[in-house]
Amino acid sequence: LFLQFVFHTYTAAFTLINGNGTPKAEEYSLQQKQILLGLGAISYSACIGALPLAFMNRYALKSSLMQLVVRKLLPAPLFGLTSAFTVGMVRSPEFENGIEVMDRNGKVIGVSKKAGEKAVRETALSRAVLFGTTFLLPEALMYCVQRAKLIKNPHALGPARMFVIMSVLAGMLPVSFSMFPQCGEIKRADLEPEILSSTEETVFFYNRGI
Question: So where does this one cross the membrane (predicted)?
Answer without folding.
Answer: 35-56, 68-90, 124-145, 157-180
